[in-house]
Write a structure and sequence with these properties.
By secondary structure, the chain is an alpha+beta fold. It contains 6 helices and 12 strands. The protein folds into 2 domains: 154 residues, no CATH class; 99 residues, no CATH class. The radius of gyration is 32 Å and the shape is elongated.
Length: 322
Amino acid sequence: MEMQEVSTLTEQAGLHCRQTKLCFTLAEVLITLSVIGVVAVLTMPQLIANWQAKSYSTAKEVFDRRLEEATRQMNIKEALTGYTTTQAFVDELKKYLKILQVCETDPSNCFAPAITNSDGSETVETKDLKNSSNLNKGNWGTKALGITILNGYTIILSYNPDCPVLDISAAGSQTTSCLSLVYDINGKAKPNKLGKDVYTLNANPFDMCGGIKIGNLCVSGNNPAVRAINTCNDTTWDSHGTSNSACANNYWAGAKQACAEQGMRLPTIAELQSIVSSGEKLPGWVWSSEEYSANTAYHISSGIVGYGSGYKGNQNVTKCVK
C-alpha cells in the first residue's frame, strides 16, 4: 500500500472517530491507565492482606483439627494421661501426629527466635519459654518442648502431669485441656506475631507468671521439690565452698537451682515481706536469696515478726519469684 493511501485511511479513521465519538485520544487513554494504576496501588495491599489473613485462618483451623483429633484418639485408647514429663507425652503423641523434629534442650531451635504480641508492643524470646511457668502454667511444674510437625507448623508445648482422666466420648476441645502451647502456622517465617501467624492454647507467653501476681512480682504457684547440692567443690550455687560447713548437703543452694530451672529465682527478704504483707500465707520457713554468713541464709515465715537466719542444711520451703 502506498504512503498516500495509508495517510488517506488514517485521516478517514480520524474523521470517523470525530463523527461517531467512539474513539479515545492518547491523552484520554493515558489518564485512564493512570487512574487504574492508582486504584491498584490503593487496593492491592488490602487484597493481599485479606488473602494472607484467610490463609493463616485456614492453616490455624487445620492445625486445631489435627491436634484435637490426635488427643481425642489418645483419650479413646487411654493414652492421654499418666505422664510425668512433657517428653514422655510427646513420645506417645508421635503415634497420632506426624512429628518431624523435637527440640528438648532449647525449644527455640524448633521455633522463631522471638514472637510479638498483637500490637507489637511486647516481644518474647522463645529461648525463654522453657517451662510450663513461661507459658503461664506455673503450677504444672513441667518443661516445655519445641516441636515441628508436618506442613512446617512449629510448636512450643508443655504437658500437665495432673491431667484428669476423661470419658472416652470427650470432644477434642476437652482432650487438649491437658496441654499448654504456642504455635506458629507459618513456621519460622515472619511475621511471628500473635493473632497473625502465632496462636496459643491454654497459654499466655506475654504474662509468664503462672502463679500469683503481687505488684510487679510474680510468685510461683507451686513449691518445687528441692534436692541438696554438694557445693564443697562446685561453687555454682554457693560461692563459699568448704567455708560452708553444710556444703556437702546444701539445701539453700538446691533451692536456688530449683528456681533457676523454672526460669525464676529465690526472693529477697524485702520481697518475702511484701508477700506476707499481701496476706499470702507461707507454708513454713521460706528461703530468701540473701545470706547471713557462709553457713546460713535469711528466711521468713508467716506469723513470725521480722525474719531470721537458717542453717543452709535445713530443708526449708522454696518459693520462687520473677
